[in-house]
Design goal:
The complex is a heterotetramer. Chain A is an all-alpha fold. In chain A, 74% of the residues lie in helices and 0% in strands. Chain A has a single domain (40-255), classed as MetI-like (MetI-like fold), CATH 1.10.3720.10. Chain A has helices at 3-21, 39-79, 85-96, 104-113, 121-145, 148-156, 161-172, 174-190, 193-198, 207-212, 222-242, 244-255. In chain A, helix 2 (39-79) packs across helix 8 (174-190). Chain A starts with a helix and ends with a helix. By secondary structure, chain B is an alpha/beta fold. Chain B folds into 2 domains: 15-167 and 323-391, D-Maltodextrin-Binding Protein, domain 2 (3-Layer(aba) Sandwich), CATH 3.40.190.10; 170-319 and 398-436, Periplasmic binding protein-like II (D-Maltodextrin-Binding Protein, domain 2, 3-Layer(aba) Sandwich), CATH 3.40.190.10. In chain B, 45% of the residues lie in helices and 13% in strands. Chain B has helices spanning 24-43, 65-77, 92-104, 120-125, 138-144, 147-152, 185-198, 213-225, 241-255, 268-276, 288-293, 334-347, 350-360, 373-378, 380-384, 386-391, 399-416, 422-436; strands at residues 51-57, 81-87, 112-116, 154-155, 158-159, 162-168, 170-174, 203-206, 280-285, 304-307, 321-328, 363-364. In chain B, the strands form 3 sheets. Chain B has a 6-stranded mixed beta sheet with strand order 2-1-3-11-6-12. Chain B has a 4-stranded mixed beta sheet with strand order 8-9-7-10. In chain B, strands 4-5 form a two-stranded antiparallel ribbon. Chain B starts with 23 loop residues before the first helix and ends with a helix. Chain C is mostly helical. Chain C contains 12 helices and 2 strands. In chain C, strand 1 and strand 2 (43-46) form a beta hairpin. In chain C, helix 1 (6-33) crosses helix 12, helix 4 crosses helix 7 (140-169) and helix 8 (172-180) packs antiparallel against helix 9 (185-213). The longest helix of chain C has 33 residues, at 59-91. The radius of gyration of chain C is 23 Å and the shape is globular. Chain D is α+β, with helices and mostly antiparallel strands. Chain D folds into 2 domains: 4-233, P-loop containing nucleotide triphosphate hydrolases (Rossmann fold, 3-Layer(aba) Sandwich); 240-326, Nucleic acid-binding proteins (OB fold (Dihydrolipoamide Acetyltransferase, E2P)), CATH 2.40.50. Helices cover 27% and strands 30% of the residues of chain D. Chain D is built from 9 helices and 18 strands. Chain D starts with a strand and ends with a strand. In chain D, 39% of the residues are buried. Classes of the chains: A mainly alpha, B alpha/beta, C mainly alpha, D alpha+beta. The interface between A and C is large, with 89 and 93 residues.
């Protein structure tokens, strides 16, 4: 059973955090809790729920923006002939490798000038630096895998490229769109650097920022932090278990593109 | 229109060449104008409409109930004004970051806010603090308030904030373990060694060594204790021989075993709890510790004394000035600004500071409160702290100190952790500060 | 709208977005880095390259670069080795097993850093109780490796998946043939599986190196660059300079330097990958 | 219905399959096959007619209209693909209706045409099924239907029977023939299967490496191949090609003789060519014998009672009238 140590390494910390979230604050000093309590969860309060909502809105917003802008662009890159086609795909791959810090200062000034600083909408734009390249990559490779004759048939049937996309390729792309949406959602939900830099008021914080800056009165409230971590993990755990196959295909398709 | 004029401005580059960076002054000016216009329109509303002044501050006391009743009394005296208090997370660095990015974005959703003494020069220079010289002229300010506090609240001869209450670094000692308060570092070491032999396992001297602003306070105090000059006219001077000697002394307490290694990852609370559990002979900390160690059930109740910090020469050492000032948000609309000023003067009045001292054992910033008979009678500890408070020294009062704080902390932490020599660490920090100030 | 112009119109929004949030900002960052720009005091002046001169003499920059390089090298090496082992286990299937190891990758790094910070806690942390000797987050040496452990815990699943895809790309017959030739499992692994896995390994190496080099979340939340800036990476130093010291000029210079390092690494890899193909 | 003509059409490709100055006239209502090995340019030719690709030079004309630069729809052509290219997410009715919806025909007209086409192809019962629920043959009929409903000027078929299994392929050949006769439409049919070309076409265009080798009726192509390639491409087993002198003829041209025209006898004969048997292959209806003679190898049809073992001696009668002269 060579899997046990691996499972212990990966799941152990998560289970320990779950236990800690039920650990009464007073007994934190003991090696093991004598009793379990839900006080930490109750103590999380509105601000944490607010952060969860913000994360949801930003992640959903980024997903919507990237699918809206990326879907037909990916179709064009995969199927149509136009100048700069490979340049665009190459640039998008390069951009996905940009370190986010490289664009923090200009984006800060840009968002500030546009009055978008310290706003959730203001986070969606920077998030597309990593989300859009991912969307383009996944959807382009999916559209390329569809049989060539399908596109020829659509053109023979009189479709303009846009009609071919709307009537034939978009309906067929629903599985790929779902995979892309999930991955973009996860990456947006997990982002920290831009959120820390651009959002200041507590009411607009996302989950990663809320957890990073979680500070109690004096001592670190480890019980509450654990509770917050568990709550932040739940939606993603659900996503992972429900769409595991999709996520794996998306990750590997995105990576191994022989 | 008394909107704070954007202060002097180095010539801006013509906008055409800057693709991304907008022309700051125009943006900020238009934004301030807009705010005032909006505000003016609002004031035309019926005069008696209740005005809500938002007071934003870090959590300053365990139980806010007493303070709420205190604010309610202000409402009583000013029926037209409602006060809503908003608290921020506790960490001082985090709170500053939040104020900076809010104010930098022109936020006007709060009016009065409590700022750390070291932020005042930076916020004033950035044009975020309303000029209160009309209501708190400099002479009055310096006469009524402790000198260091008044100094921290002013910039280039104008008043930008009003001292609320202060903190000063001081030495706590176990009266049952040492003959008297040590005056020199050598005495501190000798007394501590003797006590450690008598009571094995007890730590000699606890101070705050974690990488945060508290470490800077310990550093400056050790510097002053070794004769370092107080920052002349807002210059951050780290590379003086005395400053280096002070930092070496701090590192020395670890090498000699006088202080335990855990000091390197401790802040106020960790050291206070250790001292309160009787696990240390000496403790450097803030006045708030007194109420804790004297509380019923505290293992060291009645066995603790306090005194000025020791020095190399034996003169009473100066503690670093801490504490909070109250300022008015420059972006706040005109109507709420007048009410805000009234709230500031109410909270920094003699009666208010007395109340805060008695209820939350907070050191008043007003000199006169220390002579108040009620204070002497009900809070002798605070009254006795006047000489220390009066001689407290501010960390460098310059807009650049708050900005350079993070880098200085890093270098000091490296020195006390033994990663770099004191001289090298201070050299690197000075180089960063000079670059930042464009010297 | 004739079909000739449609492709350009279809890529326009995505291209505009990519330019607007990535390409132009990087150029703008370079432009800002040529200025003295203290945002809070609205100070702005053209400096030319003096920010970069300061950077070359800035020891904090060089130690941040060294920390980042060490972090990348050790983290990526560990992830490849552990990832390969996990990929081999994954190859035998098991949906639950795969979902379980996917979870650490799925949750935010900030959450996993906090989770590990509790395990490393110097007073009551589980690891502290199990292995009392190590002052995980206190001593500079240990703190950096604690951060590496967090990164390994979070991204090994990703590496394992890439290697799994590589394993599955190896044609069945080749392995069967080798087995028929009497190759024992270990021999088979060394002479058949590993060489055929080379493209996937190189790919994982490329992705992870560029990703690890820009690390921010794990370390910022775990140690915030402390103790004594010993775990401070380029991204963290640049972030602090921008956001805490408000020095947008020098902060941008640090960001551009980080970008340049990632660019050099990326191009270096592509040349290696390119020649191999 | 319409004729199709290509004048000096060429198409350069990085990938190699190129057309070099192809000129071809396809008469109105004709069933013309484009035949040749893969990479010979037949599919490119079809795409050029369809408008899926543009020629680098030369003009394409449908009816009397030059169609260079026009989209497939504007050319009024329909195409049937080897992979059927049916839209997986639409049912049969949706697939048939789609081109008409794009052309914005009125609803009533669309339903009428679908009904007719379904009736004509016998797929009325399948209208509400999805492509994945159909057999290969049914899918092929739906693909044909999708072309039919458009009533195009020209039908372009790109190896439509390629993915069917052999048994079904013969049956579908019959259907295609019937379809062409009834529609009296112009069919341009691409295939690499010489039997299909022979059985279906009015005329065959043999292409190789982007050039037209020969254009003619199946009979002409089979009986009077102009080049060795054309001769060897048609007929199974392959035509025998040998230097003229072996058959006693002069000149350095090549001589070719169809295996079925070579008679094998077991007794020596005067004018017959003597040789030794190398291999005997029974393919059901016929038996083919491979004979080594004068340093060459010939294939001949053996009489039903042929019983000579490999190594035995035989004699081959080669009727002079049947011998073809091919350029060297």
């Amino acid at each position: 059973m060579k899997r046990a140590p691996v499972l212990l390494f990966f799941l152990g910390p998560l289970l320990w955090q779950l236990l800690t979230s039920l650990w009464p604050e007073a007994e934190l000093t003991r090696p093991l809790p004598r009793s379990l309590t839900l006080a930490n969860y109750a103590g999380l309060g509105g601000s944490f729920a607010r952060a969860a909502l913000n994360s949801l809105l930003v992640a959903a917003g980024t997903t919507a923006l990237c699918l809206a802008a990326g879907a037909y662009a990916a179709f064009a890159i995969a199927r149509l002939q136009f100048r700069g086609r490979s340049l665009l795909l190459g640039a998008s791959l390069a951009i996905s490798m940009f370190p986010p810090i490289a664009t923090v200062s200009p984006l800060y000034l840009l968002l500030r000038a546009a009055g978008l600083r310290d706003s959730l909408a203001g986070l969606v734009l920077p998030y597309s630096t990593f989300a859009l390249p991912l969307t383009l990559w996944l959807l382009t490779s999916y559209f390329r895998e569809l049989p060539d004759d399908l596109f020829r048939a659509a053109r023979v049937d009189g479709c303009t490229p846009w009609q071919a996309f709307v009537h034939v390729f978009l309906p067929l792309a629903t599985p790929a769109l779902a995979t892309t949406a999930i991955l973009v959602f996860i990456f947006s939900w997990n982002e920290l650097l831009y959120a820390l830099a651009f959002v200041s008021t507590p009411a607009k914080r996302t989950i990663p920022v809320a957890i990073a800056l979680f500070a109690g009165e004096h001592l670190e409230p480890w019980g509450q932090i654990a509770a917050a971590s568990v709550t932040a993990t739940l939606p993603l755990a659900l996503l992972t278990f429900l769409f595991q196959r999709r996520i794996v295909r998306g990750l590997t398709a995105g990576a191994v593109r022989e | 229109m008394p909107c704070a004029p954007p202060n002097e401005q180095t010539p801006c580059l013509p906008t055409s060449r800057e693709t991304i960076c907008t022309h700051h002054t125009t943006v900020r000016a238009t934004c301030v104008l807009l705010l005032c216009a909006a505000a003016c329109s609002r004031t035309r509303a019926p005069a008696d409409a209740p005005l809500t002044v938002v007071f934003r501050h870090q959590p300053l006391w365990a139980d806010p109930a007493a303070f709420q009743t205190f604010l309610a009394r202000f409402h009583g005296e000013n029926p037209g004004v409602q006060v809503r208090a908003e608290t921020l997370p506790n960490g001082s660095d985090i709170a500053r970051e939040m104020f900076v990015s809010a104010l930098e974005g022109g936020a006007d959703d709060f009016d009065v806010f409590a700022i750390d003494v070291i932020w005042a020069p930076e916020f004033a220079r950035a044009g975020w603090l309303a000029d209160l010289s009309a209501f708190f002229p400099q002479q009055g300010l310096r006469a009524q308030f402790l000198p260091a506090a008044a100094e921290a609240a002013s910039l280039e001869g104008r008043t930008y904030a009003v001292p609320w209450f202060v903190d000063v670094g001081l030495l706590y000692y176990r009266k049952d373990l040492v003959p008297r308060a040590p005056r020199t570092y050598a005495e501190l070491e000798r007394f501590a060694r003797a006590a450690m032999e008598r009571q094995p396992g007890v730590a000699g001297f606890l101070w705050q060594g974690r990488q945060y602003e508290g470490l800077n306070c310990n550093f400056f105090e050790a510097g002053w204790g070794h004769g370092a000059p107080q920052a002349p006219e807002g210059k951050i001077l780290l590379t003086t021989a005395a400053a280096e000697a002070g930092l070496r002394w701090l590192r020395g307490t670890l090498d000699s075993g006088l202080s335990p290694r855990s000091v390197l990852s401790s802040a106020e609370e960790e050291t206070r709890r250790a001292f309160q559990d009787g696990r240390a002979v000496f403790l450097r900390n803030w006045p708030y510790v007194w109420a804790q160690v004297q509380a019923p059930g505290s293992p060291v109740r009645g066995k603790v004394g306090f005194a000025p910090l020791p020095t190399a020469t034996g003169e009473p050492g100066a503690g670093a000035l801490g504490g909070w000032l109250l300022a008015v948000n420059a972006h706040a609309p005109e109507a709420r600004r007048r009410a805000a000023v009234r709230l500031v003067s109410y909270l920094t009045s003699h009666a208010a500071e007395l109340e805060l001292a008695l209820h939350y054992s907070r050191l008043p910033a007003r000199r006169a409160v220390y002579d108040d008979p009620r204070l002497r009678e009900e809070a002798p500890f605070i009254a006795a702290l006047f000489p220390l408070a009066a001689t407290a020294l501010p960390r460098p009062v310059t807009p650049w100190y708050a900005l350079a704080g993070d880098d200085i902390q890093g270098e000091l932490s490296a020195a006390v952790a033994g990663l770099r020599s004191a001289g090298e660490a201070l050299g690197r920090a000075q180089r960063f500060v000079d670059h930042l100030e464009e010297r | 709208m004739n079909a000739r112009r449609q492709p350009l119109i279809m890529v326009a929004p995505a291209a505009a977005l990519l330019c607007g949030v990535a390409l132009l900002p990087v150029l703008a960052a370079i432009w800002i880095s040529l200025h003295r720009s203290i945002l809070v005091f609205q100070e702005r002046r053209f400096l030319g390259l003096s920010n970069y001169q300061f950077l070359l003499g800035d020891e904090r920059f060089w130690s941040a670069l060294a920390t980042t390089a060490w972090f990348t090298a050790v983290a990526v090496a560990a992830e490849l080795i552990l990832g390969l082992w996990v990929a081999l286990l994954l190859q035998r299937g098991g949906g639950i097993f795969r979902a379980a190891i996917l979870l650490p990758w799925a949750i935010p790094t900030a959450v996993s850093a906090r989770l590990w910070a509790w395990l490393f806690n110097a007073d009551y942390g589980l690891l502290h109780r199990l292995v009392p000797g190590i002052d995980w987050l206190g001593s500079p040496r240990a703190a950096l490796h604690a951060a590496i452990l967090v990164d390994v815990w979070k991204t090994t699943p990703f590496v394992a998946l890439i290697l799994l895809a590589g394993l599955q790309a190896i044609p069945e017959e080749v392995v069967k043939a080798a087995r028929v030739d009497g190759a024992r499992p270990f021999r088979l692994f060394l002479s058949i599986t590993l060489p055929l896995l080379r493209p996937a390994i190189l790919l994982a190496l490329l992705f992870r190196t560029l990703d690890a080099f820009r690390v921010f979340d794990a370390i910022y939340v775990l140690t915030e660059g402390g103790p004594a800036n010993s775990t401070e990476t380029l991204s963290i130093y640049a972030f602090k300079t921008l956001m805490r010291s408000g020095d947008f000029g020098y902060g941008s210079a640090l960001s551009v330097a980080t970008f340049a390092c990632v660019l050099v690494l990326g191009l270096g890899f592509l040349r290696v990958l390119g020649t191999r193909r | 219905m319409a004729s199709v003509s290509l004048a000096q059409v060429s198409k350069g490709f990085a990938a190699g399959e190129a057309l070099r100055g192809l000129s071809l006239e396809i008469r109105d209502g004709e069933f013309l096959s484009l035949v040749g090995p893969s990479g010979c340019g037949k599919s490119t030719t079809l795409n050029l007619i369809a408008g899926l690709e543009e020629p680098t030079s030369g003009t394409v004309r449908i009816g009397d209209r030059e169609v260079n630069g026009l989209s497939p729809a504007e050319r009024d052509v329909a195409m049937v693909f080897q992979s059927y290219a049916l839209y997986p997410h639409k049912d049969v009715r949706g697939n048939l209706a789609f081109p008409l919806q794009i052309a914005r025909l009125p609803r009533v007209e669309i339903d009428r045409r679908i009904g007719e086409a379904a009736e004509f192809l016998g797929i009325s019962a399948l209208l509400s099924r999805k492509p994945r629920e159909l057999s290969g043959g049914q899918r092929q009929r739906v693909a044909l239907g999708r072309a039919l409903v458009r009533r195009p000027k020209v039908y372009l078929l790109d190896e439509p029977l390629g993915s069917l299994d052999p048994g079904l392929r013969a049956e579908m050949r019959g259907e295609l023939k019937r379809l062409h006769r009834q529609l009296k439409a112009t069919f341009v049919y691409v295939t690499h299967d010489q039997t299909e070309a022979m059985t279906l076409s009015d005329r065959i265009a043999v292409l190789r490496a982007g050039e037209l080798h020969q254009l003619g009726s199946p009979r002409e192509i089979y009986e009077r191949p102009r080049t060795r390639f054309v001769a060897e491409f048609f007929g199974s087993p392959r035509i025998n090609v040998l230097p003229a002198r072996v058959l006693g003829l002069d000149g350095d041209q090549l001589a070719a003789i169809r295996p079925e025209h070579v008679e094998v006898v077991e007794q020596p004969e005067a004018k017959a060519l003597e040789g030794t048997v190398e291999m005997v292959e029974l393919t059901g209806a016929e038996t083919w014998v491979t004979v080594a003679a004068a340093g060459e190898k010939l294939t001949a049809r053996a009489p039903p009672d042929f019983a000579v073992e490999p190594g035995g001696r035989v004699w081959m009668r080669i009727p002079a009238g049947r011998v073809l002269r091919l350029p060297g």
